[in-house]
Amino acid sequence: MPEFTARFATAAEIAQWDSLVTANPNGGNLLQSEAFAAVKKNYGWDPQFIAFEGPDFTSYNLVLQKQFPVLGKLWYLIKGPDAADVSEIPPMLEALRVFVKRAKLKVFAAKIEPDVIASDDAHAVLSGAGLVKVPDLQPNDSTALLDISPEPNQLLRNLHSRGRNAVRRAIREEVQVVPMEPTEETMRTMYDLMVGTITAKSNSQARDFDYYKQFWSEFAKRGQGRFYFVFEDGVASVGAFVINYGSKATYKDGGSLQKRNQYGDSHLVQWVAINDMKELGALQYDFCGTPPSDRLKDPTHPHHGLGLFKTSFSKSVTDFVGCYDLVLSPLRYKLWSVAGERVFRQLYTRRTGKQFY
Question: I want to staple 230 with a disulfide (CB 3.0 to 4.6 A). Which of 35, 238, 302, 305 is the partner?
Answer without folding.
Answer: 238
